[in-house]
Design a protein that fits this description.
Length: about 270
Amino acid sequence: MKPSSFDPNNKSQDLFGGKKAMYRNARKIVVRAVTIAFSIVVAQICRGQETAQVAKESGGMGYSMFGSGTIGINDVNAKFESKGYSMMSDDFFSVGGGGHAIINNRWIIGGEGHNLLGDAATSGNFKTSMNLTYVFFDMGYIVYSIKDLRIYPLIGLGVGGMNLKITEDVTSLSFDEMLDDPQRGSEMSTSGLVLNVACGIDYLLSFGADETGRGGLLFGIRAGYTLSPFKGSWMMDDLEISGAPEIGMTGPYIRFLFGGGAMGKKD
């Protein structure tokens, strides 16, 4: 199965690719700008708070997470290019959620899950796309805390999967047409063990505090790197695909957190 009308010298396709590159660069600039702004806010909070460590508090947080990540898919793109397909972007939009418990204002134990969605690439009559899913069990340690601001390294262990689709780029399809020509695309998947190493900054905007504790809105940011020490085989249904490039869920990311939580005082 090859794209029937893809021309790498086609100027309109070059223009389309250039627009996608501009979009990716703009997205990176926005992420960096938000990160800088968040750092400035954190610095102002630190200047306005007392420096005493809050001790013997425990609580829990739950949150949604969104951001951007990069996955190393160079080997897959090299295969695509050799067969006349357009290369896919290695930038992925990340959306997910998680939660964790805080023990004695020191230890963090929790979990998180994410979907990483990539941009589809069109090559003649065919469209290629890739997405990833992974979940982690996390453990972290709070190295710095000022009132409701916490900074912590974190490590996670989990499993993940990648899904690669090559489909015919059609706008409509009848049931009879599908039966007449069922081989209109392929879908392959692989899975494996994934490690997550990250650093996070959380701030609990508390309200309604009393002698037992307080609750509030949680804002945060995490930057990290995922690793795939053991890579699985590519499968199409129950059929193992031979000669496939080795690829893992490996690459850096940055994510923003928004949710809520509560902290309670411990006697």
